[in-house]
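Researcher: Structure prediction, please.
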Amino acid sequence: MTRLVRRFRSLPIRSRLALLVAAAVAFAVAAVSVTCWFIVQGKLYDEIDNDLRSSIGTMRSDDFQNLTDNCRQTPSDALGMGTRPKSYGQLVRADGKVCLFPSSTAQVEVRGEDKDVAKNPVPDQGRIRDGTDNEGNRLRVLATAVVIKDGPLTQGVAADYSLVVALPLKGTQSTLNELALILLLVSGVGVLGAGAAGLAVARAGLRPVDELTEAVEHVARTEDLHIRIPVADDSEDEIARLSRSFNSMTSALASSQELQQQLIADAGHELRTPLTSLRTNIELLTRSEETGRPIPEADRKALLASVKAQMTELAALIGDLQELSRPDTGQHADRTQIVAWQDTVESALRRARLRGPELTIMADIEPWYVRAEPSALERAVVNILDNAVKFSPENGTIEVRLVDGVLTVRDHGPGIPADELPHVFDRFWRSPTARSLPGSGLGLSIVARTVQQGGGEVSLSPAEDGGTVATVRLPGAAAPPPEVPLP
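Model: Predicted structure follows.
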């Protein structure tokens, strides 16, 4: 049994569906066929039983008297048993003695219940049973008690005789056998047709699954994520939902793959400049050592300072790439916590003042508590302040405000052209006017990613009298939990 179950499970889905449909139809057809056969059998037996009872009703008492006197001298038609090609009639005494009707060609096998009818008659039309004759032929037998009176034969009173009449079942059995054969043939055709129909329905119903399978195999073979499965717009069944989910998945994977490839290409491009500069400077230092021609001390210090600056730029770029390589599916639950945003801004301001000591940084900070990853949030605020320091003019002013969960950083630099604003948060994007300044073009991308993961919004816009305003909104509360629950 276990082996059959395993074999069944190893079959294709369409084959299993076809077998299940065929089995269900076979069960239903078998139940209907068996029920039909038994109903027909009951009807045929009822007809025979009615014939047996009507044959007894045509007998008269003088016929019975003559038969008891001399069984072989009574005409057969007088006993009402001549309507069948072969019939059986006999009298059975209480002691078991049998007297055959003249029309009987064989004797009905006498049973104890036939003698009991003569001894203990029941108030009905007799007892009907299945029996056989002395030749082994199957019969339908009726045994009833009789007495002799003037007039018609009376049944159901005390008597010394039981009248036993029977009809052969050969014709009935032949009819039932033919009916069983017809039902069997019809059932077989029905089961085969159901199996074929089930297979056709399974093929039609699983055609979208085949298309999905082919699409998945194509993706696995070619890594082509642009394949799509056609789905009707008005279809809402499970297959359509699965197809739409597959299309959405491949679309997301294709987008992720394109972003990954773009990130790798942009990273390679950004890494090429500092690496080329490093290689050139190191080759100059190496050639000086190999040729024994020392580089002037001032030039040597400049080369070493350039190497150090390039190493610093590489380290910053690698750190930014590591930050962007993290899954973009939200913050890590084990790293997020309630953060006092005002403290994070104060810490970032201290670092900004060190990087721009000649600048005036004015701050208006009010308490605000958010749920975020502390290090990522501080890095985002530092990146915004670094941009403000980088683009502010000498002895310029930077205004920082944190009020009701909205952080604004306004500088008085050259500002950002309107046509460049849509690209400021793209990875590795740098304004043409800022290509000569240090940076990797990833700072604002990291800011946007961190703010979005915290459920907030970030934007850059031109200030009214020049400069740029960076605005960050994060959901939170003015007091830490549990006094005011965070949203």
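Model: The first strand starts at residue 88 and ends at 93.
Researcher: Thanks, that helps.
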